[in-house]
Amino acid sequence: MTGRPIDHDALTELFNIGLHRAAASLSELTGQRIVVDLPRLWICPIEETHSRLRELIEGELATVHQIFMGNMSGDAVLVLEYENASRLAALLTDGELAAGGRLDQSAREVLAEVGNVILSSCLSAFGDMLHVSVSFAVPRIHVESLEGLLRSIKVQSDELHYTLLAATRFRLTEGEVGGYLMIAIGLASLELISDALESGPS
Amino acid sequence: MAHDELPFSGDGVSMQLLHELAQVLELGVLTVDRSLVVTGCNRWLTAVLESQHREIVGCPLLEVFPELRGGPAEQALRAALSGSTTVWSHRFHRYFLPLPARPAVAEGRFDRMQQSARIMPLVRDGAIDGAIVLVQDVTERAAREEQLRDALSRAEVASQAKSDFLASMSHELRTPLSAIIGFMDLLESEMVGPVEPLQKEYLGRVKSAARHLVHIIEEILTFSRVEAGKEPLQPEAVDGAALTRGVAELFEPQAATKRLTLRVAAPETAMLFTDPTKLRQILINVVGNAMKFTEAGAVSVSVQQHGERIMFGVTDTGPGMTAADLERIFDPFTQLDQSLTRAKGGTGLGLPVSRKLAHLLGGDLLVNSVPGEGTTFTLWLPTVIGAEAVLPPHGQSVPSALS
Prior knowledge:
A: Chemotaxis protein chec; 6 helices; B: 3 domains; five-stranded antiparallel sheet; 20% strand
């Protein structure tokens, strides 16, 4: 991996800060109390990401991609199993959307906004720690297979070598839904994060 | 700057291309500088702006639309100035810019155009120079979704109201009827004084009518409970053959009175794991129905095991039904011939309740009939409730033992 091991606990804390901000924004947006937990976090080389995700998820996926640029660059993706994406859209809209199980245009818009909030919040937490501004492209929602998801990341850039993979759980009043956050970055970005975590909060 | 000038990022060629594109797009494109002063507005957006806002370019956006100030819209614009992109779904926000809705598509549901939007940084020469807002009119889709939701909600409310009404009315009727029957028993027992023979006969008639009424009310109650999904299952090991023989025995006096032959063809045992009360209720309803409508000939009841399923058959030599009748037979509150209803009594709920109970037990209740020849009801159940029952196609033939 990198020259030295990354501080796993500090990285978890960083994700937690981002997810906490995301949950606050989502709660305000939907008018219901939403908590986003981070049960597990992995740092894996991009070639191991497939087998790792294969153990965790199956079937068709709904993903929200957000490319980010700046001193730290890469592709951040919210990954949900299709059924869970449909459930999440229904829970966030009091059952008004995706009740039939299919993600129609409005449900996709909702998920794009939710993905945007979560990914931006997490990336901003990274940006704040690194004292750099991170800018984001327009998020895109896709329905794809796991292979398609990883292929699209490889196609975007051969420079993306690692993924920070976080299992997340959205807890709402009426139920909870599991998903994954995947931040694909290059070696330089990973070292930047590692250095910043090592030097501690400034 | 003119209305249609849009300061996109990029070199001269791509700038020109983007500018041309923005003018033909069927969505709104608005740009602001770092002070949130409007620097560009495409043709589509200019056309949908209210007349007093047509000269928007050069004006501070928050002065043109004061309601954006301090809210999530201003936050999104400021976030764009620091490099973030915001997705704005109509479901959560309704709209980004307060624009009038086109009445033809809003169907009276919205005054404002419903929008989804993207708010992004505008980069010039590598630096964030302002923000660009893309606005899409989704009013038509939003109106359609609201219409669907309204229809669904009305249907749910109506269905719930009906079930609640039936349940509460039935309960209210049953309570005084219990008292009527109880006091009739008391009078009949002569505990409160002697009763003349004629009075006794009349008391018997009143009691019989009251019991019939209780039976009807029980049917309505069961129907509303099953329909509301409030009918609990209590499965146990049941001998389907013994249960069928027991049900047939209940109808022996009626068969003798009507001079009908009552046949039972059942193996010694036919074990299944199901709710016996509900199975008995279905068989009583179906056999009772056959007895009620058959004036001559026979009513035959059978049980047969078919692998993981058990088939109960009830065949009569009654008047039979046409294909059109068969389509309606399981509709609640429907009796095929209203003159028969008056003659035979009943709520029209017996068969709908029976089919709903069959579904509850993981099976189905099917019917075959030939006008003038008779009718066969076939109840298919899984031998173990919860195990998926593979049901036969409609038109399953009568078991040979009964034909």
